[in-house]
Amino acid sequence: MQHAVGVPQPPQGRPGPGGPPPAAGPHDAVETTGHLKLPVGGPVTLPSPPPARMPHGAPPPTVAVLLIGPAGAGKTTVARHWADTRRAPTAHISLDDVREWVRAGFADPQAGWTDHSEAQYRLARRTCGFAARNFLANGISCILDDAVFPDRPVVGLGGWKRHVGPGLLPVVLLPGLESVLARNAARTGNRRLADEEVARIHGRMAGWYGSGLPIIDNSRHDVPATVRMLDEVVGRSLASPPAW
Question: What is the pTM of this model?
């Protein structure tokens, strides 16, 4: 058979436009990561409340917790220990860690809060939210930590609710100012803030009192004791979710 000059022909063994698709070969690429693909914007529903009497040795339900608090409250340490010691698969998703994935071009808020640093915070929150949804869809609980302010509900809780879903359980970790200042003084690098900034943030966080969200004052508690309190709060929140 002759072909018209100048008309490109399909490669040997490949169908032309409109032809049937080629059969998959044994070496064709296959999705092997085992992750579940999530619908765009798919919300995470509220887990079913645990029964009044859990069977002995039964794993806790899959949950997503947002641990809120000022710099120096111990959010990251408590969140990591909570995830380490649960009897069910649990991930810790640190907003600061994800934000610092940006290396060249990192917008450090300590150099001045700008539109650029704000945009990187928003990007980190969206990234954390997607990661949380993916973990939950695969049966892995997660805890996120962030300094969410009560006077910015749309950016704070509203943003996390959009990114993760209505099943997110927010808990406030709010020790006294002296404890926060002492813990902040022990920090290094760009996560250590000036005392004046720490006091200002702590004052804004006081707005969570009266919000209806559970608040843990860990001023006089070590990390294991705080984690036990967090477990109790999460259990109560599952049985009777706070309105937010």
Answer: 0.72
